[in-house]
Amino acid sequence: MNLAGRQSGRMLPLAMLLFGACSYAMTFSLNRIAITEGVPTFPFVFWQGVTAGTVALAAGLAFGQRPNLSGPYLRFYFIFGFIGIALPYTMLALAAPKVPAGSIALTLTLSPILTYAFSILFKLDAVRLLRVTGILLGLVGILVVLAPGTSLPHPDMAPWLLLAFGSPVCYAFGSVTVVFLRPAGSQPIPLTCGIAFASSILMLPVMAAADSWWLFDGTMTEGDWSLLGGGALTALFFVLGLEIIRMVGPVFFSTNGYIGPLAGMGWAALYFGEVPSPWIGLAVALLFAGLFLVNRSSRPVIRAGPGP
Q: Which of 1, 192, 248, 308 is the most buried (most CB within 10 A)?
């Protein structure tokens, strides 16, 4: 394939990445609304999974795609239900009412660096100057946003923000290991359905141990709608993410960790009046320069685990 063909072939995953990251960034604000409106933490994570699974199931049935319930698939569902939703969403839900939504969105900046490190560790990638430069440019872009002032109004918010940083660790590890564990020939919509419902099943014993149960009471509040909206966006992001990883690999997908925070700050400004830094223009320029370099050095990773 010539250079023009390769660049053309990368436009679709790039468009998917931009759309998915900007859409998913809204969940940080929606999470804050739902939690502050009274949805308990563990039921919040449970219903996120149920909503995402239901949306993916409906989409799958519309396209004639049903979740596979054989052994390798069930293993995949529960591993990534834990890594991708149950654990990181619990950490984000605990931090949501304690830290500004824009600050929590910034935790995603850790994901590209960790994904690249995990990719090298698992021998999915090598040290490449263009890719390293692109990732570092993206990181500098985020630091530009933070440099003029602090992102936290109060120092006692720091431990909660540190807890939120656990979520990109999960995302980075999951993005890399999915290359090995994903069943061959599997499709992203039914995989998302299985992952989401598995995460909800995993939350049942947690809710039981904490005696924390919550149901919709029939009168839909802003928090209830935010919970459902976040679950639907989670389904969309997982479907796009699984396909992007299949097409161009986990490192390219991880650059959503630079797009998402900036979009997340935009959504936080819209919902809560959290005014972003005036340096945002420089940050966006650095972000897209970094994304361009990572995109130029991306190569498809066509690996998957054994079939059913």
A: 192
The Cα 101–Cα 221 span in angstroms is 20
Q: Is residue 302 part of a domain?
A: no
Q: Using CA atoms, how far apart are residues 56 and 42, in angstroms rounded to an integer? A: 21
The pTM score is 0.80
In the beta sheet, which residues pair with residue 305? Answer: 183
From CA 247, how far away is CA 297, in angstroms rounded?
A: 14
User: Cα–Cα distance between 83 and 23 in angstroms, integer?
Assistant: 21
Q: DSSP code of 86?
A: I
8 A C-beta contact, residue 306 and residue 183: yes
The verdict on residue 301 lying in a domain is: no
Asked if residue 256 is part of any domain, the answer here is: yes
| Structure tokens, 65 | 């795609």
Number of domains in the chain: 1
pLDDT of residue 209: 93
CA angle centred on 140, ends 279 and 92, rounded to 5°? 90
